[in-house]
Amino acid sequence: GQQVMQIPQYQHVQEGEDFTTYCNSSTTLSNIQWYKQRPGGHPVFLIQLVKSGEVKKQKRLTFQFGEAKKNSSLHITATQTTDVGTYFCAGWAGGGNKLTFGTGTQLKVEL
Amino acid sequence: DTGVSQNPRHKITKRGQNVTFRCDPISEHNRLYWYRQTLGQGPEFLTYFQNEAQLEKSRLLSDRFSAERPKGSFSTLEIQRTEQGDSAMYLCASAVGTVAYEQYFGPGTRLTVT
Q: In this complex, do A101 and B107 lie within 8 Å of one another by their Cβ atoms?
C-alpha cells in the first residue's frame, strides 16, 4: 500500500532559525496537502499543491511539490514560538478516496 | 472551531465492552472520513462516506469496527468487543469539493480501553 514518510521526525530550533521538513511518497500523488497539529489539538489544513514543481508561499511558510509528484517540502523562515506543533503531509493517490498521512515532523521552538 | 463536532470527547471503557462515537460534520459537506491516531503517529484512514454511502474502508479495519451515516448527515463509529490496542484518538473529518478535498477535522474522541 501507499506509504508516506517524513524526515526529520523531530526538530528543535532556536526562535529565528529556519526549519524544513521533507515528505516522500512510495507512489505518485495526484496532489498533496499539508496540515499542522498543535499539541493536544487536531490537524488543521494549511495548503494543497496540485501541479508538478508547484511552489506556494504563505507568509513565512514555503511549500514545494516535486517534479515527479512523489515528494514535497515545507520550509519555515525565521521560526516563531507559534510555529510549534507537528506538521503532516498527506497525499491523495489518483482515483483514491483516502488521504494517506505522513509520519509527521514535530517542531519545537525555543526562545 | 472548524464546525465539526464529535461526542463524546473522552471515553474510558473496559476491555470487551462496545463503544459508539458520533460525528456531526459541517452541514453542507457531503464527504465524511474517520481516522485513528495514536501518539506520535499521523492520522490513519479508517473509512469514508460520500453522502450516506460508505465508499471505502481500510483493510486494517477489523470486523469489530462498523460505521454508518444514515441520511448523509451525522455519522457513528462503533467498536465492538474493545481491546486495549483500540486505545487511540478517533478523528472525524468532513470535506466538500469536486477535485481536491480539504479536510476539516473535529476535536476527536479519545478512547482508553482498560
A: no
